[in-house]
Amino acid sequence: MRGFIARITAFLGIWLMASPWFCGYATDIAKIHDVAAGVVIVGLSVIIIRQRHTKGQKSPSWPLGLNAAVGIWLIINGSVVFGATALGSRLNNILVGCLLAGCSLLAQQIIEGSNFFIFTKEGGELVEVSKVVLKDGFIEMKGKAFGSMPQVMHVRPKQIWLLMGLLPAEILIALPSLLWRGWRDNKEKIE
């Protein structure tokens, strides 16, 4: 997931490098600034994409932190520093900065390589999912059932669609709260 988000941030960096010619930048210093910032964003994004996650090791978050800092700088830059430049360049920096900082901060919170468990009501381990991939139009999940039996499970698109009909509104409404609690519980476990 971090790699996917890094591809989005790389696109934002490429856009930032090209935007002086599309958004009508009024000064050369604003053009140079955005091209340089775009190069830094793309470079950090490539580092994130090239990171190989190994099970049991947490991939470094420093490139994501630096990209978030560049995003915050772009927001400040668009709001305060280059205030006299064209409105297009200012808005572009603010928008790219918000998206870059948001994506980078979100990616920092994602824990990759952790297994997912489904438990019985009594707390027994029912299914452990260690890998989820898209394969031949199906979602393929690899893991173990009942703690020891290796399993490869396929979820067909039809079943994904039917799952949506099983989700009551109360789960959809509670989803942000559930995600928050899951994030908080995982953060406490790591620290």
Unreliable stretches (pLDDT < 50, length at least 5) are: none
Please give the domain count.
3
Radius of gyration: 21 Å
Instruction: Give the termini distance in whole angstroms.
Output: 22 Å
Describe this structure in words.
By secondary structure, the chain is of the alpha+beta class. It folds into three domains: 108 residues; 41 residues, no CATH class; 31 residues. Helix content is 60%, strand content 16%. β2 and β3 form a beta hairpin. The chain is elongated and about 65 Å long.
Describe this protein with a few key phrases.
4 strands, 3 domains, elongated, 60% helix, 191 residues
Concise account of the structure shown:
60% of the residues lie in helices and 16% in strands. The protein is α+β, with helices and mostly antiparallel strands.
